[in-house]
Structures are given as C-alpha cells and as structure tokens.
Amino acid sequence: xxxxxxxxLFVSLFLVAGLAKDRVTVWFAGTTESLMNEVESTxxxxxxxxxxxxxxxxxxxxxxxxxxxxxxxxxxxxxPDIFMHGQAAIAGFVENGLIMPIDGFLSSIEDVSDFGSAxxxxxxxxxxxxxxxxxxxxxxxxRADFFEEAGLDPEQAPDTWEQLRYFASKTTExxxxxxxxxxxxxxxxxxxxxxxxTSFLIENNGSLFDDEFNPTFNSPExxxxxxxxxxxxxxxxxxxxxxxxxxGNLAPIAAGTTAITFIDVETMSAxxxxxxxxxxxxxxxxxxxxxxxxxFYSFAGFMVSKSTKNLxxxxxxxxxxxxxDSIVEINEAIGSLPPRxxxxxxxxxxxxxxxxxFVEGAKYAFGNPNVPFWVQAxxxxxxxxxxxxxxxxxxxxxxxxxAKEIIKLK
Length: 410
What we know:
Blueprint: H1 2-19, E1 22-29, H2 33-50, E2 54-61, H3 63-75, E3 82-86, H4 90-95, E4 123-124, E5 127-128, E6 131-143, H5 144-149, H6 161-171, E7 173-175, E8 178-185, H7 190-203, H8 220-234, H9 252-255, E9 258-264, H10 265-274, H11 276-279, E10 282-285, E11 295-304, H12 311-321, H13 324-334, H14 347-350, H15 353-361, E12 365-366, H16 374-389, H17 395-407
Parallel strand pairs: 1-2, 1-3, 8-9, 11-12
Antiparallel strand pairs: 3-11, 4-5, 6-9, 6-10, 6-11, 7-8
C-alpha cells in the first residue's frame, strides 16, 4: 500500500512538473485601449500557442506612474522580466544594476538589421540594452510651390549641405530688408536647437561624447557644423535669428513663412487637419548629407531585467514582441512610427506617404546619448549654442566653454 502511495505521489509530482510553465512578465508603457485589446486578444494567445511551456503575463502601466512603479517593484525583488521605457532612461537603469545587455542574444531577434541605425540608440558603454518598439522622428520638409516660384525643381529636395544653403537662399523673400519668407526655419534656442544642430554634427562625422562620457562635440567636426549652422542665420540670412513661430495651429511651413524646415509627424498631422489646401504642397525628404545623413528620432522600447529568472523564456518573449509582425501590430494599434524598415510595407504605413517616409527615415536615426547626466548636459550645450547663434560667442569658443562646464558633471 505504501509503495502504491509513493508511486501515485511520484507520478503526480511528475505530471505537475510537466505541466508547470515558465512565467514571463512584461510591462507595456501606456494604457491605450486599442493596444491593450491587441495585446490581450491577439498577441498573448498567439505567443502562448506557439510556446505552450511559457505563460506571458502583461501589465499596462501609465507613463506617469512607470518610473515609480519600476523603482518600487525592483526594490521589492519583483520587477518585470521585460519592460518598456524611453531610451533616455537606459543609463540610469544600467548604473543601478537593473537591466542586462542584450548583445548576447540579439541573434535570437528576427532580422536585427531591419532596425537600421535605430538599434544603436540602446548602446551604453559599448553594450546594447534596448530594442526600439515605437517612436517619433524629424525629417526635412519643404514647400513645393515655393520651390517652383523660385525656379527650383519642386520634386528635388536639398540633398547636401550646400544644396540646403542654395535652395534656402533662392526661396528667401525680403521686404525692406526684413525676412517675409525664410528660406529655412531652424531652431535658435533650447532643446530643439540642440537636436537639430546635433544632426549637423553627426552628418559631419562628429559626436557628442566618447565612451567615457567626455564631451567630443567641440572637435573640428563640431566647430565646422556650428559654423555652418550659424552662417545660415547670421551670414547667409536665410533663417531668422529670432526663430519663427506658429500662427494659430499652423507651423511656419504651413503658415507660409518658411520654405524649408525640419518637421515631425505631429506637425505634419496638424498641417493636414488645419491647412488641407496647403498640406499637399509640403514634401518630405531625408536629412541633407555631408558625410552621412542623420535625423533625430526618439523611441520607447523594451529592456530586460537583470533579475529575470527564466532567461531562455524571456528571450523567446522578447523575440516575439519585437518581431516584424508584432512591431507592426503594436504601432498600428497606437498610431506611432515603427522602427523596422520592413514596416513601411504594412498597410497602415504604405497607405500613408507621410508615415512611410518617416519609417524609411529611421535608417538614419540617432537619439539622445545614453549619458547619466544627459539632461543637465543638454541644457548646458543648448545655452552655449544659443550664444553662438546670437553672435555673442564664436562657435569654437561656445563649444569649448560648454565642454568645460559639462565635464564637471562627470
């Protein structure tokens, strides 16, 4: 009898062990109803059907509560296996020992090259910690009707720095020596100035920091990029030194006060809504090239917790959630930009030329650097860029002074 009980117990334990599943917890940022429905009704069942030994547990955390909940859960030893956050949070999570590098299992991710340079936004101290999932970007935009009026080919966007200068000069209109229509609208202050100037820096083969977080933006490449930027405003006078402002709901390019600018998806959407008669005249192009092209993109994406207990199952879940099909499903649900190039063929992208161009432009994407003190460094850099743009400091002096101040943050 005892032997029979032992046999039954052994068989029961064996069956329970066989039925036990690895549990992988995933936190999505945001609570968009369409995304929650897509994940819960389609993605989770599909993944668990393909991986019957894994239970995928998904939670949706409001963006405003995300950082606090992550801090609390990790402190209590119950953090998610995979979680979503913005790329700017990477450095902090690494320094606090909360996430692991993913380089060792990137080969498990479907066609990583499909992300283009967007996959590099997750690199910190030489290792990658992040796979982008959705985002927003900035491309070059121009008014085709203004080009035609100036004798330019309305189908030909400025493709190089010199063409940008020339096309901006041809489309600038002045009345009594005052700019009526700026050939080019570029930011002259704040974070927008920093982002757009950084695209020129990277196009000139420059960089903001090295791997040890030492400023490198005051290199010859950086100085040349800032000289070019400043000359557009103060010497060539194709852009306003005061900056252009929106008129009501219309950005300058839609309001007709500039011919060329750097634009994001949201601004294009506003132009379509509030100026439909002008919208078709606004053409999109990739950023102009010096030695390469570069456009500022910001992404939210997935990171892997260092404390995950079922790494193999976590990798399978990460691979599924960042696959070509999943990236399309997630972005279609929330109406954002997928970072995969192949997504340009998805119906909701292919049917919208604007979104299609932004997705294609992600191959030239760069983001804010993964530096622990980035916010302070950004504000310092913007302050000195403003001084150069206003002619208060020479470009080299402004960048050198910014570097001196930022190095003290290390």
